[in-house]
């Protein structure tokens, strides 16, 4: 359903993505791991064109786009079918929890307020936040903020959900409640891409693991291939350093 082909991207004189290829099937749960600064976030952002590659192609179902001749309608169509969950939650501070979830439904999808409220309540129930629906972000824990972010992403019923280190800015005691929600989401069959440093979690939920290093996909395979029998020396070294943290 999603193919990235030879994606290249530079910031100034530094080449960040050096020809990334990635293929994702419907229903896949693909975790992207790799050292800091290797381009994982940038790669996710290329999918919805928040980051702008200098070359390469993306295919999203029937939508095909060459990054050298970007077509606004294609970008819009891809954005409508993806949703992203950010490390820093990205909830609006001046809106309540339920307003945050209703917002993209009304603004982007042009749903009525009643319909948006109905969907938002379903998604808040799914992430265990119904009781907090009228709270403002300042009244929530980090885990609750991130669950709001996840409900907001799910509410638009995306074809693909993109998680960028969704637990890495949480206090350790709040990580579990968010991972539990992500596990529910990924096991519901929605196609998911997850950038994470939670290796045990990636191993348990993923259908495939992609190891990025120096702006390319350096290794990929099943969780067992990657974690139990890593053939790439840089991958083995990376896994050792993560385990020793
Ligand atoms: N908007 C930007 N302008 C300039 N450089 C950027 C920008 N965004 C990212 N970079 C640089 O691109 C490189 C890759 O960044 P990216 O955030 O994709 O890495 P990452 O793999 O997600 O790292 P981490 O695991 O720390 O989140 C880094 O060197 C970063 O400093
Ligand atoms: Mg990142």
Strand content: 25-35%
**What is the domain total for the residues?**
1
Order of helices and strands: EEEHEEHEHHHEHEHEEHH
Mean pLDDT: 95
> What proportion of the residues is helical, as a percent range?
25-40%
Distance between the termini: 36 Å
What structural class results from the helix and strand content?
A: alpha/beta
Please give the CATH architecture: 3-Layer(aba) Sandwich
CATH topology: Rossmann fold
Low-confidence stretches: none
Number of strands: 10
| Count, helices | 9
Strand count, sense and barrel status of the largest sheet are: 6 strands, mixed
CATH class category label? Alpha Beta
Strand order of the largest sheet: 6-7-8-3-9-10
| Ligand set | adenosine-5'-triphosphate, magnesium ion
Please compute the radius of gyration using only Cα atoms: 18 Å
Subcellular location: Cell inner membrane
Keywords: ATP-binding, Cell membrane, Membrane, Nucleotide-binding, Transport
Main location: membrane
Organism: Rahnella inusitata
């Amino acid at each position: 359903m999603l193919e990235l082909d030879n994606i290249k991207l530079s910031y100034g004189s530094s080449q960040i993505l050096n020809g990334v290829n990635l293929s994702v099937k419907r229903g896949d749960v693909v975790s992207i791991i790799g050292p800091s600064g290797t381009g994982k976030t940038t790669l996710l952002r290329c999918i919805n064109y928040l980051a702008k590659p200098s070359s390469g192609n993306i295919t999203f179902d029937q939508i095909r786009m060459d990054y050298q001749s970007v077509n606004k309608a294609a970008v819009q169509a891809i954005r409508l079918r993806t949703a992203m969950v950010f490390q820093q939650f990205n909830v609006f501070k001046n809106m309540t929890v339920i307003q945050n979830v209703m917002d993209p439904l009304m603004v982007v999808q042009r749903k009525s307020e009643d319909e948006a409220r109905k969907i938002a309540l379903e998604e808040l129930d799914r992430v265990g936040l119904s009781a907090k629906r009228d709270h403002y972000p300042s009244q929530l824990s980090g885990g609750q903020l991130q669950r709001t972010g996840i409900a907001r992403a799910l509410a638009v019923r995306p074809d693909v959900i993109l998680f960028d280190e969704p637990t890495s800015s949480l206090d350790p005691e709040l990580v579990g409640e968010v991972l539990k929600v992500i596990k529910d989401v990924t096991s519901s069959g929605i196609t998911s891409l997850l950038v994470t440093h939670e290796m045990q979690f990636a191993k348990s939920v993923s259908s495939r693991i992609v190891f990025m290093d120096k702006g390319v996909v350096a290794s990929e395979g099943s969780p067992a291939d990657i974690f139990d029998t890593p053939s790439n020396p840089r991958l083995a070294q990376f896994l050792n350093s993560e385990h020793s943290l």
